[in-house]
Design goal:
The protein has 266 residues and is an alpha+beta fold. It has two domains: 70 residues, Arc Repressor Mutant, subunit A; 167 residues, Beta-Lactamase (2-Layer Sandwich). The chain is built from ten helices and eight strands. A six-stranded antiparallel beta sheet has the order 5-4-3-8-7-6. A two-stranded antiparallel ribbon has the order 1-2. Strand 3 and strand 4 form a beta hairpin. Helix 8 crosses helix 9. The longest helix is centred in the C-terminal third of the chain and has 21 residues.
Length: 266
């Protein structure tokens, strides 16, 4: 039997669903800067009375709060849920799809790491197809100031902290890491870190391991704090300086995509 056009239309959303979506719309409007009922109603397309009813319910349940002379703000319940959501899913699990994408795109070794004290702690590694296998591994630790991913983790630290970490990373004796290697001076390190801050990325220019270079970028949470970093690394033949510069936007984009999983806004 031929169905009439009316039967082809999708059913209207149930009343409960509509109320839920409107309530979420109120939260989104407040998150976007709406501070009074008039502005919230304008953004979500509801009457003032409906908006007042929804907002009052959300205030009562602590999803919103109202401050004198300020208006509506996001409430403590959202903070609680945000922390719970962040803690329930491991960082490496959320980041994995993006790390796999970067690895497939470049063919290089891709790392995910966090800061643990004065060291880098590697949480994930995608071995590269280019060049020999690197000695890094999940659970491996390295001094922050010697690695590109460590420098990315240090971008928000003070220059005094940079200097402390730089001095701590120096080998006990000159050329202890490998012969004929010219150790970087503090002024050189400081100049590089200042440049990295402006670009929101960091390089490893064989600072930690001979013939190994990498491009790194920080991962930030909703508060803007650096919570982790990623790096794309390979040996010198596969990682000339020109390629490193070309990789910067790609590595930063992937870091921003992972940041978005934690509420970061890039």
């Amino acid at each position: 039997m031929h169905k009439s056009p009316e039967n082809d239309k999708e059913p209207a959303a149930p009343t409960g669903t509509q109320t839920l979506l409107r309530g979420l719309g109120v939260v989104q409007a407040v998150a976007s800067g709406a501070r009074d009922l008039k502005e919230i109603a304008k953004r979500i397309g509801t009457t003032r009375s409906t908006t007042h009813r929804l907002a009052s319910c959300l205030v009562e349940e602590r999803y919103l709060r109202v401050l004198p002379q300020v208006g509506y703000l996001l409430g403590p319940k959202l903070i609680e849920l945000g922390f719970q959501a962040r803690d329930e899913v491991p960082l490496a699990m959320l980041a994995r799809p993006w790390l796999d994408e970067l690895s497939a795109m470049t063919g290089d070794t891709v790392h995910l790491a966090i800061r643990d004290g004065d060291e880098v702690l590697y949480l994930h590694k995608n071995p590269g197809r280019n060049g020999p296998e690197m000695r890094s591994r999940v659970g491996h630790r390295m001094p922050l100031a010697r690695t590109g991913i460590g420098k990315a983790l240090m971008l928000d630290s003070s220059e005094e902290e940079w200097q402390r970490l730089f001095k701590k990373s120096l080998p006990a004796t000159p050329n202890a890491l490998w012969p004929n290697h010219e150790e970087q001076t503090w002024p050189q390190f400081l100049k590089r870190m200042r440049a990295y801050i402006k670009g929101a990325f960091a390089f490893d220019l064989e600072d930690n391991e001979p013939s190994i270079r990498c491009v790194a970028a920080p991962i930030r949470d909703a508060s803007g704090h650096i919570i982790a970093a990623i790096s794309n690394a390979s040996t010198v033949p596969y990682m000339p300086l020109e390629k490193m510069q070309e990789l910067v936007p790609t590595v930063k984009r992937v870091a921003q995509e992972i940041s978005a999983e934690f509420g970061g806004r890039g």
